[in-house]
């Protein structure tokens, strides 16, 4: 690397770099939407729904205004309500649990697998009670949860499985794209996601035509015919411009996923001789590497060192959900989920995005190695 390359800042995420490569396509798609005045739903959203359903192998895709809304609709569609329980993970973004709380149900947490950060199937069966209404695993950081044993448990107990795939666009489980294993699957298109909108966005996937029709009505005030409302609904419509942007970006997703995996594998090589615990792909998984998360007991010191050297990094997630103030009423305490708590203390997300150059990857690795050389 040149002297200039070794001193240049390394951003944690560089959305501008992505936009530069597709700007002409994006401008044309947005202009088309503006010309059509299709601002809420409309033809661009409908086309994206078809394309994303095809990409994932689903029969139906329902575009909504956020991943949180998609998760909420999933709970409504499964008739989860007050007094019910939904088994999920404490190591994820809070929106997973919000969806359960929105319908008056109780999140029941189960600890994670220490290697993959995803819901541990071996612990799920013991958490099932007569009140359990669904199981909600998260494909965390782009790594699929271990779905086959979870589906077997769900089948044994007559429970639906809902995939939270908000971070896993294009990730594969046994060579099959995630999003069609559960009764419903939920995606987020928040701008920083592997497939991100230019604002908020989300989608619900299902093979069930009846649930798809109900979801389409629920996202539009509970109405399948204008001004006629069969049940209480929501204003969860996807904006037309977001559908247009996502339609363009979807065409590049496979290439971008391949580039993310390139960056991850290069990190594997460069950081193999450091004390860090690096991400591990399970035999069944092909991660989309939404995040590249390393672990170390001196995480906070390493974070300070990276930032002092102008290398971006982030914490996902520093406090597990069972210890959050908003869920104190659930009665969990420190020590209840030791693997999730340990991960929260040790995890650090390094920069990863498709446009990362070899020089930037090497710069991150050099700064990390410098930290450990200093003791």
How would you describe this structure to a colleague?
It is a single chain. This protein is α/β, with parallel strands linked by helices and 375 residues long. The chain folds into 2 domains: 18-250, Type I PLP-dependent aspartate aminotransferase-like (Major domain) (Aspartate Aminotransferase, domain 2); 252-373, Alpha-Beta Complex (Aspartate Aminotransferase, domain 1), CATH 3.90.1150.10. Helices cover 41% and strands 12% of the residues. The protein is built from 13 helices and 12 strands. It has helices at residues 3-7, 15-36, 43-56, 67-77, 95-102, 121-127, 147-157, 209-218, 240-250, 253-271, 299-308, 338-346, 358-373, and strands spanning 60-64, 85-88, 106-109, 132-136, 162-164, 172-173, 176-177, 184-188, 202-206, 285-286, 292-295, 347-350. The strands form 4 sheets. A 4-stranded mixed sheet has the order 1-9-8-5. The chain has a 3-stranded parallel sheet with strand order 3-2-4, covered by helices on one side. Strand 6 (172-173) and strand 7 form a beta hairpin. Helix 2 packs across helix 9, helix 3 (43-56) packs parallel to helix 9 (240-250) and helix 6 runs parallel beside helix 7 (147-157). The longest helix has 22 residues, at 15-36. It is globular, with a radius of gyration of 21 Å. The two termini are 25 Å apart. The model is unreliable at 1-5 (pLDDT under 50).
Distance between the termini: 25 Å
* SS content category: alpha/beta
The low-pLDDT segments are: 1-5
**Average pLDDT metric:** 96
Total of domains:
2
Strand order of the largest sheet: 1-9-8-5
Portion in beta strands: 5-15%
How many helical stretches?
13
Q: Please name the fourth-level CATH homologous superfamily of the largest domain.
A: Type I PLP-dependent aspartate aminotransferase-like (Major domain)
CATH topology of the largest domain: Aspartate Aminotransferase, domain 2
Described by the principal axes of the CA atoms, the overall outline is globular
Second rung of CATH, namely the architecture of the largest domain:
3-Layer(aba) Sandwich
The CATH class name of the largest domain reads Alpha Beta
Q: Quick one: how many beta strands?
A: 12
């Amino acid at each position: 690397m040149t002297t200039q390359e070794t001193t240049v800042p390394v951003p944690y995420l560089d959305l501008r770099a992505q936009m530069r490569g597709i700007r002409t396509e994006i401008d044309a798609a947005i202009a088309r939407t503006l010309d059509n005045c299709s601002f809420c739903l409309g033809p661009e959203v409908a086309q994206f729904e078809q394309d994303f359903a095809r990409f994932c192998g689903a029969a139906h895709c329902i575009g909504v205004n956020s991943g949180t809304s998609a998760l909420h609709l999933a709970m409504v569609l499964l008739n989860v309500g007050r007094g019910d329980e939904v088994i999920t993970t404490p190591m994820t973004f809070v929106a997973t649990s919000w969806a359960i709380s929105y319908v008056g149900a109780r999140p029941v947490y189960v600890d994670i697998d220490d290697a993959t950060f995803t819901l541990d199937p071996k612990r799920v069966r013991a958490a099932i009670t007569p009140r359990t209404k669904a199981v909600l695993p998260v494909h965390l950081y782009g790594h699929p949860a271990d779905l086959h044993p979870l589906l077997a448990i769900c089948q044994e107990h007559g429970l639906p499985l809902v995939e939270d795939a908000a971070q896993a666009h294009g990730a594969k489980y046994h060579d099959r794209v995630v999003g069609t294993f559960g009764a419903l699957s939920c995606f987020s298109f928040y701008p920083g996601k592997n497939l991100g909108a230019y604002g908020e966005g989300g989608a619900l996937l299902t093979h069930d035509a009846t649930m798809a029709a109900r979801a389409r009505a629920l996202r539009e005030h509970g109405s399948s015919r204008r001004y006629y409302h069969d049940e209480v609904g929501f204003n969860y419509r996807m904006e037309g411009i977001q559908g247009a942007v996502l339609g363009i970006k979807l065409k590049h997703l496979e290439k971008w996923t391949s580039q993310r995996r390139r960056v991850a594998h290069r990190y594997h090589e460069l950081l193999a001789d450091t004390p860090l615990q690096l991400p591990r792909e399970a035999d069944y998984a092909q991660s989309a590497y939404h995040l590249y998360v390393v672990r170390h007991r001196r995480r906070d010191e390493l974070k300070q060192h990276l930032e002092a050297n102008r290398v971006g990094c982030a914490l996902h997630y520093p406090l597990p959900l069972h210890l959050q103030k908003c869920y104190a009423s659930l009665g969990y305490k420190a020590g209840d989920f030791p693997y999730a708590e340990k991960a929260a203390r040790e995890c650090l997300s390094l920069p990863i995005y498709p446009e990362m150059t070899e020089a930037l990857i090497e710069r991150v690795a050099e700064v990390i190695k410098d930290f450990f050389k200093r003791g």
